[in-house]
Amino acid sequence: MALQWSPMKKAKSPICLLLCLTLSACGPGGAEAEQPTDIPQRSFAVAGDQTVQIEVNVGLIRVVGIPGDEVEVEGKLLYPAQTDFDVTESPAGLNVSANYRGSSSPNQANPPVEVEVRVPFGQPMRITTTNASTELNDYDGSAEVSSVAGDIRARNLTGTLWLRSRRGALAVVGGKGEFHLVGESGPVTIDGTDGEVAATTIMGDISYLGTVSADEGVRLEADHGAVEIRLGGESNANVTVSTASGFIRCMLPDLHPVIRGCSGTLQDGAGNLEVRTVSGAVTIQNIP
């Protein structure tokens, strides 16, 4: 099944162009104002080993995990004549794509493309975008999300998750599993997760809020961004904090200064917390 909108070309009189400029009667790129178009909900059967691929250049992507064996797709196109939307099925899986060809800097408060995809639990998923914001909620499975400048936020995910963004913000809130966050200049946030966490960034700041329990591992690395850690009182971990030239504040009584850092053991040290920076500052303290 494929849905696609092609651009409509109309000649404009000088009066029409003047109205566009003075009354904002045009859409992005000087096109005449369009009526938003809803993407009607459709369902697609998928096998357990097939991948759901989502490709949207700008706008908003929402993904929600659901039971069953069908992917549900719906959404809205603010400028349908300037947007190519397509859903295709293949032996490899399902591909959902949207390409907005209007202004290179669309209004993020009113995104030109909104796509919601409800994915069965356990279905592998891959999302690629240039500047779309991505929201993932209550998903259970293996997911990879890559973005150039869009923000990515995952809430209550179970399984294995890879988030990558060069300039956008990355956030994981709640959930249990294995979480990998790779950033460059945007902020990175980890809040209340269970399991393994690995977060790296170059210029962005890292914020970690949670409890490192036995058999859990958390590794936070920033070159020049700051790292702020607030630990729950039940944390049970071996802690190592180091920096090449950054300022370190270790505000836990069980942590002791070492050369260019601090270290110590919380309870039995059954888990592991490792923090490294080049020049970024590090603050580690208990949750108030």
Description:
The chain has a 23-stranded mixed β-sheet that branches. With 288 residues, the chain is mostly beta strands. The protein has one helix spanning 14-23, and strands at residues 37-45, 51-66, 70-77, 83-90, 93-100, 113-120, 125-137, 140-147, 152-155, 158-165, 170-173, 176-183, 188-191, 194-201, 206-210, 217-222, 227-231, 237-243, 248-250, 255-258, 261-266, 271-277, 282-286. Helix content is 3%, strand content 56%. 39% of the residues are buried. The radius of gyration is 23 Å and the shape is elongated.
Question: Mind sketching the topology for me?
Answer:
Layout: H1 14-23, E1 37-45, E2 51-66, E3 70-77, E4 83-90, E5 93-100, E6 113-120, E7 125-137, E8 140-147, E9 152-155, E10 158-165, E11 170-173, E12 176-183, E13 188-191, E14 194-201, E15 206-210, E16 217-222, E17 227-231, E18 237-243, E19 248-250, E20 255-258, E21 261-266, E22 271-277, E23 282-286
Parallel strand pairs: 2-5, 2-6, 2-7, 7-8, 7-9, 8-10, 9-11, 10-12, 11-13, 12-14, 13-15, 14-16, 15-17, 16-22, 17-23, 18-22, 19-23
Antiparallel strand pairs: 1-3, 3-6, 4-5, 18-21, 20-21
Descriptive key words:
single chain, 288 residues, 23-stranded mixed beta sheet, 1 helix, 3% helix
What string gives the helices and strands in order? HEEEEEEEEEEEEEEEEEEEEEEE
- The radius of gyration over CA amounts to 23 Å
Question: Which outline best applies?
Answer: elongated
Major sheet, described briefly? 23 strands, mixed
Number of E-type strands: 23
Q: List low-pLDDT spans.
A: 4-25
